[in-house]
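I am writing to request your help with a piece of structural work I have in hand. I am sending you one protein, given as its amino acid sequence and as whole-number tokens for its backbone shapes. Kindly check, if you would, that the fold set down in the tokens agrees with what the sequence suggests. You will find the record immediately after this paragraph:
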Amino acid sequence: MAITIKDVAKKAGVATSTVSRTIQDHPSISEKTKKKVRLIMKELGYQPNLAARGLVNKNTRTIGVVLPVSDGAAFQNPFFLEMIRGISKTCNEKKYMVAIASGTTEEELLESIRMMAKGGRADGFIVLYSKKEDQVIDYLHQENLHYAIIGKPYQYENEILYVDNDNQLAGKDAANYLIGLNHQKIAYICSDIDEMVTAERLSGYQQALSAANIVNDPTYIVAEAFKDTEHKQQLASLFLADEHPTAVVASDDIVAMSLTHLLKDIGLSVPNDISIISFNNSIFAEMIQPALTSIDVHIDYLSSQVVEKLVEFIEGRQTIAMKVILPHKIIERDSCKSRID
């Protein structure tokens, strides 16, 4: 197992920040402590990454943007594309460059990030997702690298920078919007339930139903809905049943768009038969027919804020972990209709 900065700190009996500042030759650390830490580093065979050294000399003025593990679907997702565009725009304004880290497996993605960090090719990283048991976050945290997350983290929440919406409240608002249209049979359909954003929106949906005295029917919660033909057939069966949902909270615009096509294939129309509200207010929300009612999470603001805050950490103007929570707004279009009993 590779020696980490935490191993050095433990052996030397100091904080990881002390080891980091020793690597940077920071004047706040005494020469006695620096000598002790350097001896431990040599004894353990710890090789500090070049990015950390660059902080004292000159940084690379490059930020690594980490996409989720994907066989290419992430590059077709408008949320990630719009995030990359927004991050690039703000980086350009601050004279930073952007490098993309991606992989078809978690191991491949992690190796890509390791190469960027150890090779001194990035001063910090922006992770565009948050999921359970993520080796990428563990690595970035253990190596004491500068990084920020889009979304509420599953771990280290009080130790890192993250920028997010209140997705639990957004999920509640989405469900309440449909309840306000006299819908009682409301489904929640998503792709990956292990992603924090999806789980938070689901929690808000469930809270709204409970507050309205609507039973939370577990058969109305469908994850990995479009994973393969079998999952699509199961979803179709849900809407062909006698007691089928009359409305759907879709976890994002891509799920909503796929659902719209599936419903059309089985002879149901949006919004006459099924109402749909989704999230992100991406370009797809306007392109599909009928246009989607979607919750705008202000991607431009998310992307600019995460860059601005991360650069403050990279340049030493901020040292305390923080979270930035941004507002959301329902954009009404044509995919929802009041239900008349």
